[in-house]
Specification:
There is one protein chain. By secondary structure, the chain is an alpha/beta fold. About 30% of the residues lie in helices and about 30% in strands. The chain is built from 8 helices and 17 strands. The strands form 5 sheets. Strands 2-1-3-6-7 form a 5-stranded parallel β-sheet. Strands 12-11-10-14-13 form a 5-stranded antiparallel β-sheet, with helices on one face. GO terms for molecular function: DNA binding; phosphorelay response regulator activity. It comes from Chryseobacterium rhizosphaerae. Pfam families: LytTR (PF04397), Response_reg (PF00072). Keywords: DNA-binding, Phosphoprotein. InterPro entries: CheY-like_superfamily, LytR-like, LytTR_DNA-bd_dom, Sig_transdc_resp-reg_receiver.
Length: about 250
């Protein structure tokens, strides 16, 4: 059996996830935790489970606070309505990141991913876990943006570029420009490397939207959808840029 803990401060969401997990006979939910304080106490006094499903925003803080105080020996699958915590999640033993409302197929995929990390003899230790997670490339598949009082999910495959302006990072789609909560440095770590490349300090571009590349007198990229500003490739990035184009 796979000993599993649910960390979720909303009782209906906790019950729903437990019901969904009941479809996996190999999973045994051994505890349900509702707060940071309760989580710190439980992980201090109990044997760590193999698998943890954890919401991020709890009533008394972020669940990250639990694992920063009590380093976990298990794998974490984060469940949340917000995408801006992706980078930090993958630094804390996370193997997946599910956006609410959780879909059956996404949950099944996350459980299968967890099982792929566990050898047949189930002897993986905490050091092995960290090495396995290091090998797992975490990629951002969708971004949550705010439009007035509304939230919208934008798939990264729809984004032609990310760019910074006046200390805010925006994303560009065919439809319009949206502000985001990321920095370009964070995005470099979590975007799919084969699709996205940082051409300079201001722009990260998506190869799927490249229309033309000028090489004289300097490298300049034209995208299908882009802000008014010219997109140039920094001199020190030209070689890496050309390598990326054919990778």
């Amino acid at each position: 059996m796979i000993r599993t803990v649910i960390i979720e401060d909303e009782k209906p969401a906790s019950r729903k996830l437990e019901r969904m997990l009941s479809n996996f006979p190999e999973i045994e939910v051994v505890a349900k935790i509702e707060s940071v304080d309760e989580g710190v106490e439980w992980f201090t006094e109990n044997e760590h489970p193999q698998l943890i499903f954890s919401d991020i925003v709890l009533g008394d803080g972020l669940s990250f606070d639990i694992f920063e105080k009590i380093p976990t020996k298990g794998f974490i699958i984060y469940t949340t309505a917000f995408d801006q915590y992706t980078l930090k999640a993958f630094k804390l033993n996370s193997i997946d990141y599910l956006l609410k409302p959780i879909l059956e197929e996404d949950l099944s995929g996350a459980v299968e991913k967890f099982k792929s990390f566990i050898p047949a003899d189930n002897t993986t230790g905490s050091q092995d876990i960290k090495q396995l997670i290091k090998k797992e490339k975490s990629t951002l598949s969708r971004v949550l943006v705010k439009i007035g009082y509304n939230l919208k999910i934008v798939q990264t495959e729809e984004i032609s570029c990310f760019f910074s302006e006046n200390k805010i990072v925006y994303l560009q789609t065919q439809e319009r420009t949206y502000p985001s909560d990321f920095t370009l440095d964070e995005l470099e770590d979590i975007l799919e490397e084969k699709k996205f490349f940082r051409v300079n300090r201001q722009f990260i571009i998506n190869s799927d939207f490249i229309k033309n590349i000028h090489t004289s007198p300097y490298y300049k990229v034209d995208l299908a959808f882009q802000p008014d500003e010219e997109i140039t490739v920094s001199r020190d990035r030209v070689k890496d840029f050309k390598d990326w184009l054919v990778s």
